[in-house]
Amino acid sequence: MNKKTLIFTDLDGTLLDHYTYQTDSADKTIAQLKEKNIPIIPNTSKTLDEVLLIREDLKLDSPFIIENGAAVYIPVNYFSEQPLGSRLENGFWVKSFCQKRDFWLSLLNLNAPQFSAHFRGFSQMSAQQLADLTGLSLTDAGLAKRRQYGEPLEWLGDQQSQANFIKQMKLSGANVLAGGRFLHISGNCDKGQAQSWLAQQYKINQAEQVFTTIALGDSHNDTAMLEAADVAVLVRSPAHDFPTLQRVTDVYFSREYGPAGWAECLQKIIF
Predict the structure, then answer these.
(1) Which domain holds residue 21?
(2) How many domains does the chain have?
(3) Could you tell me if 6 and 72 lie in one domain?
């Protein structure tokens, strides 16, 4: 059988620099992966509109995963058959794993009013406020606000109130993920579940291939995807420690930060 590698990658802080959102240090490795026809599959907390723009900039034609595993987008005809359970939407086959954003906003309003002074959600911010907070351009901040499946929160309170809030939201049926910058409120989905589903579609459609999955991430909301992959790459962050994994085999830790660390480890593993 032929062997094929699939690269699942977080974006912010991993393939994209934590401060500049650029890929400069990884551009050579990206080009090498394209030459070898190895798919680079974004698996990110970002929105559909954000990922579409990044795919265009990087000239990627692979599937991708948005909003922490809330949905998988596969270009139509990328596989020979449309995956079961997916729907056609603007040139993509889409598989959703989570309720829409309005559901989670209602849940926040109903179940966490006592915490409302301790957080500020994307839906409460203007594009300018989000740009000021993240360093994104005004245009990119506008794209980041176009959430479909969940609500990211800037936490303003202390650690104890955050722990109490997370407990309350989980009791209410929400999933709470701590990302590089924000708490993400959504459903019982994660990057690992969506990644495993998409990897399975590759296996179904290309049965003659043996696939190896490599996942790269830098923060706690990447843990599920790192645990689910054959090979896990933890990319060093200038903002926080490496996420903690249960697995101990086939795990790499980068010495370099962000996209430089991304490239460093893939050069070691593949090239």
Answers:
(1) 2-97+190-269
(2) 2
(3) yes
Helix (H, G, I), strand (E, B) or coil at 258: helix
Secondary structure (DSSP) of 141-161:
HHHHT--SS-EEEEE-S-HHH
Same domain, 194 and 265: yes
| Residue 194: its H or E element | helix 191-205
Rounded to whole angstroms, how far apart are CA atoms 202 and 183?
A: 31
Residue matched to tokens 């948005």? 66
- pLDDT tens, position by position, 166-189: 999 999 999 998 877 899 999 999
Q: Which of 7, 1, 109, 26 is nearest to 64 (CA)?
A: 7
Phi and psi, residue 122, nearest 5°: -55, -35
10 is catalytic: yes
Look up residue 72 and give its DSSP letter. Answer: E
pLDDT of residue 104: 96
What digits encode the pLDDT tens for the residues 23-58? 999 999 999 999 999 999 999 999 999 999 999 999
Domain boundary among 124, 153, 186: 186
What are the DSSP calls for 88-121, one per residue? Answer: EETTEEEEE-S--HHHHHHHHHHH-GGGGGGEEE
Query: What token pair was written down for 43?
Result: 């698996």
- Domain boundary at 186, 218, 247, which? 186
Number of Cβ within 10 Å of residue 218's Cβ equals 32
Catalytic residue among 10, 17, 218, 222: 10
SS3 content of the chain, % helix, strand, coil (to 5): 40, 25, 35
Is the same domain home to 154 and 200? Answer: no
Q: Are residues 199 and 86 in the same domain?
A: yes
Q: Residues of the chain whose pLDDT is less than 50? A: none
Same domain, yes or no, for 63 and 169?
A: no
